[in-house]
Amino acid sequence: MPSFDEVLKEAGEFGRFQKRVFFLLSQTGITFSSLFASVVFLGRAPDNFWCRIPGAAELSEQCGWTLEDERNFTVLPLQLGNESVSGECKRLDVTWDTSVSCTSPLARYGNHSTGNLPLATCHDNWVYEQPHSSIISEYDLVCGNAWMLDLSQAILNLGFLAGAFILGYAADRYGRILIYLLSCLGVGICGIIVAFSPNFTVFLIFRFLQGMFGKGTWMTCYVLVTEIVGSDQRIVGIVIQIFFTMGIIILPGIAYLIPTWQGIQLAISLPNFLFLLYYWVVPESPRWLLTRKKGEKALKIMRNIAKHNGKFLSPHYSEITISNEEVSNPSFLDLVRTPQMRRNTLILMYAWFTSALIYQGLVMRLGIIGGNLYLDFFISGAVELPAAFLIIVTIDRIGRRLPFAMSNIVASIACLITAFLPEDIPWLKTTVATLGRLSITIAFEVVYLVNSELYPTTLRNFGVSLCSSLCDLGGIIAPFLLFRLAAIWLELPLIIFSILAAVCGLLVLLLPETKGISLPETVEDVEQL
Fold first, then answer.
1. Domains assigned to the chain
2. Per residue in 32-54, pLDDT tens?
3. Cα separation of 84 and 73, whole Å?
4. How far apart are CA 205 and CA 275, in angstroms?
5. How many other CB atoms sit within 10 Å of the CB of residue 303?
6. Ranges for the Major facilitator superfamily (MFS) profile domain (predicted)?
7. How far apart are CA 43 and CA 148, in angstroms?
8. pTM for this one?
9. Of the candidates 154, 158, 127, 156, which has an alpha carbon nearest to the alpha carbon of residue 142?
């Protein structure tokens, strides 16, 4: 009986069929990255808001004030009397009297400076010039509640983490395409509920669920694409990352054209329903079917692939070699039970954690400080585009391991140099930091490919999902690490990033080279790499 890779070679390793499936599934990268980075635009700081005084509605009705009049009469006196108080989080704690004059409601206090009048902290009842422009104005995430915006992003990352475990396990047990389609449905439905959440609690619950299903779509489509192409074509695992970057580049355009956060949320969520049409054009992974003792179904799909690729399978291909490995429900113990699997798993988990932590840390450091939010975000996404092209040029010539190690080492050196460059040459400091970001982006994209190539088919989706869950943990820790250490010394986070990247660069040299090697089908195959 021929092996799967032998049949795939005859059917076409990257023919018309695989190119079509690849292009269709790659669109998932655009929607997933839009979800990943959406908080930048969903949580835009409101341009102008203030704390409304108690009884302001009655006063406005009595005096015929517009919102601008109300602000001029109740907030500006506070600002004039105390320049350190903006009127956003504090208000004057006085009795407002319009019985004498609507144009001077503080007349009863005579010539007393408003700087000497008592103040009260504002707990609710804020007024926004654009009340539905972001979730900040929608749910009053200002002043003492500002930390809740960070919570919303942490909850999304927790959703990614849950999706990596739950849906990664489900895809190995029930099939890639089934979990992919269910995840797309979940992202769409939860996205709509998030857009129309009546309160912040409902918003958080369904943002968590959207994150969980979103991770399911991204990880499953990635594994599916990798499993239907030949060993020489697995570079598609890098090319698919370009679509992730495309989502980052497209997002500011969507946000610029749509003025409300609900509109942006719907724009990045609704396209997931279109992916349900893939039920009729994207088959189940033949590799996965073989591990589940479904050789006839796998062969039927292979004949269909050959037909679309303009090829014909030999008649004697009546059966394909099926893995003799006993298939069980995957668990973490399966990933660390044997020496090579254990080494690969621990190194890959560290690589995922480090890549995510440094990547998000450098993004936040370079940040979007002032200027044009939309243009700055677009440029920050465009910086990532060269990463995929550099990988494509090098990875099939010199292998996976060396670019993986070198990208981490370069990122380490760039972070270290940036930390000690003087502040009076900001252009050089920014340039070197950008080099660090480009390098860690390369490392981030290579780890996807290497991870999928170092696990057997029976454990591939679960292994990729479990290891990549450390990416979500790194994403949760990154802002706290960055801001806490920066409070001690501004450049201290860069020193930590440099150490983490250097250790990662050395560790990945211990991984086996997978260039041109068939995907392992069993744990025994991995042990022999």
1. 1-46+142-323 (1.20.1250.20), 48-108 (no CATH), 332-528 (1.20.1250.20)
2. 999 988 888 888 877 777 777 77
3. 18
4. 24
5. 16
6. 110-516
7. 10
8. 0.81
9. 127
